[in-house]
Amino acid sequence: MKKPTVLRKRYIPSEEIDITGDTLVFRDKDLLITKWKPIRKRTDISRGVSFTFLKEGYKISKFFGAFGEFIYWYCDIINVLYDEVQDKYTLTDLLLDVKVLPDERIEVLDADELSYALKNGIITTEEACESLYILDKILKMAYGGQFPPRVCTEYD
């Protein structure tokens, strides 16, 4: 399996980080599965598994605590840009996130960041609308008992 370049781009804070070093578990035209360790040292998270749904616009990550225990699901709403010539994915964080806890509580995160970014021209209206649209899809999955997608439960 050929390993692509994967960049994580964020608006707040403004940064682009090469995460190609993550372990590639699976790749096809619809899905990337990677295993990783936190970019910055953390005491609360030891590792994770991410499922990037390339056509759906979100990445669902399974976070594990300091002792390897599952702690929560984290959903990044993203825009995926793929450069076929360079075999490179740029995953742009569209600011809104969803955390799903083991007891099925759901937290929507960073709406304040989306508001700030839109007001200050950091994110386009189109990107903000896309973020809200994908947030709605994730919440419907979660409230409809269809979260996480089955593939996400097959890897630790």
Task: Explain what you see.
The chain has 156 residues and is of the alpha+beta class. The chain has a single domain, classed as Beta Barrel (FomD barrel-like fold), CATH 2.40.380.10. It is built from 2 helices and 9 strands. Strands 1, 2, 3, 4, 5, 6, 7, 8 and 9 form a 9-stranded mixed beta sheet that branches. Strand 3 and strand 4 form a beta hairpin. The longest helix is centred in the last third of the chain and has 19 residues. The two termini are 20 Å apart.
In short, what is this structure?
The protein has 156 residues and is α+β, with helices and mostly antiparallel strands. Helices cover 18% and strands 42% of the residues.
What would the principal axes of the Cα set say about the shape?
A: globular
The separation of the N and C termini measures 20 Å
The CATH C-level name is: Mainly Beta
Can you tell me the residue ranges where pLDDT is under 50 for at least 5 consecutive residues? none
Q: CATH fold name, please?
A: FomD barrel-like fold
Which helices and strands occur, and which strands form pairs?
Blueprint: E1 5-10, E2 15-18, E3 23-27, E4 31-36, E5 47-53, E6 58-64, E7 70-83, E8 88-100, E9 106-109, H1 111-119, H2 125-143
Parallel strand pairs: 1-8
Antiparallel strand pairs: 1-2, 3-4, 4-5, 5-6, 6-7, 7-8, 8-9
